[in-house]
Specification:
The protein has 299 residues and is α/β, with parallel strands linked by helices. It has nine helices and nine strands. Helix 3 links the parallel strand 4 and strand 5. Bound molecules: guanosine-5'-triphosphate (GTP). Guanosine-5'-triphosphate binds next to helix 1. Its main location: cytoplasm. Keywords: Cell membrane, Cytoplasm, GTP-binding, Membrane, Nucleotide-binding, Ribosome biogenesis, RNA-binding, rRNA-binding. It is found in: Cytoplasm; Cell membrane.
């Protein structure tokens, strides 16, 4: 049996979370087309007959904005890299820039690094891919270079096969059916945050946090009938009063849609009926306030 920790790193928006979800086989890490969706370190677990892969999805490495939130996120990336057995560095096919270069500088020399060249489904000129891969090969001594699309399950299976021999021989760290180290409470907050990100357009900046005030599971209606109803109460924190109408939408319709989509994702992931109650509250300047960051779980 092989078991190992694998960091998934890369600049914002290259598809790290989408790839981790594919490798794990469930949606444990939230994704969106906006950079900086992932804020925290989440472990994703996948167990095969002869190997257990423990993936650490990391926030996209950020240098542009210098808030306390970004500093905390960048620290998470550097700390994650320090105790890994292997690293998957994700770049986007045909797009290599300064932000990727900064991640390259962080790659450990003494651990195997696999380059995953993602979003190849978007490359129209396939002939241009080979020179791109060759240029990438010169930048670092990679254990392997794997072109992938994080939307294709067979690409995930192939990446697992490439990773397997790089893991040390060791007993599994998690139960066979575990998919993450995070609680359902945490996952519920993340799912709701994802819907806010996805459904509010660009008007609401990345300064949104979600806290869960209540997470209670009722006993099943009858024995053996699966899980009982889960009652969740959540608060969506925004920075400015002016963001409230954007989040609520006309007659509260936007918030209703956010809550409905979040509830559906939660039901799928938890395998239970969910009753979700959402509130919106304003707390100015939380992205720059260390105490509040801790409270929101980003400390
Ligand atoms: N076409 C295509 N889109 C992809 C692929 N992988 C990811 N995406 C999309 O790219 C966007 C960003 O994906 P994420 O997984 O959130 O990216 P991330 O690197 O985790 O982003 P951060 O959390 O900001 O660091 C989403 O809209 C994904 O659906 C891919 O292989 N092909």
């Amino acid at each position: 049996m092989r078991t190992g920790l694998i960091a998934v790193v890369g600049r914002p928006n290259v598809g790290k979370s989408t790839l981790v979800n594919l490798l794990v086989g469930a949606k444990i890490s939230i994704t969106s087309s906006k950079p900086q969706t992932t804020r925290d370190r989440i472990l994703g677990v996948r167990t095969l007959a002869d190997a257990q892969f423990v993936f650490a999805d990391t926030p996209g490495f950020q240098t542009r904005h210098r808030s306390a939130l970004n500093a905390a996120m960048n620290r998470t990336v550097t700390e994650t890299l320090a105790d890994m057995d292997a690293v998957v560095w994700v770049v986007e096919a045909m797009k290599y820039g300064e932000a990727d270069e900064q991640v390259l500088r962080l790659l450990p020399k003494e651990r195997p690094v696999i380059l995953a060249v993602n979003k190849i489904d978007q490359v129209e000129d396939k002939a241009a891919l080979l020179p791109f891969l060759e240029a990438m090969a010169k930048r670092f001594d990679f254990a392997a270079i794997v072109p992938v699309s994080a939307l294709k399950p067979e690409d995930g299976d192939y990446l697992l096969e490439v990773l397997k021999p790089l893991l040390p021989e060791a007993a599994p760290m998690f139960e066979e059916d575990a998919i993450t180290d995070r609680s359902e409470r945490f996952l519920a907050a993340e799912i709701l945050r994802e819907k806010v990100f996805r459904l509010t357009g660009d008007e609401i900046p990345y300064a949104v946090a979600v806290t869960i005030e209540k997470f209670e599971e009722e006993p099943p209606l009858k024995a053996g009938a699966g899980r009982g109803l889960i009652r969740i109460a959540a608060t969506i924190w925004i920075e400015r009063e002016g963001h409230k109408p954007i989040l609520l939408g006309r007659k509260g319709e936007k918030l209703k849609r956010i809550a409905t989509e979040a509830r559906q994702d939660m039901e799928r992931l938890f395998g239970a009926k969910v009753f979700l109650d959402c509130w919106v509250k304003v707390k100015g300047g939380w992205t720059d306030n260390i105490g509040l960051l801790k409270r929101f779980g980003y400390g």
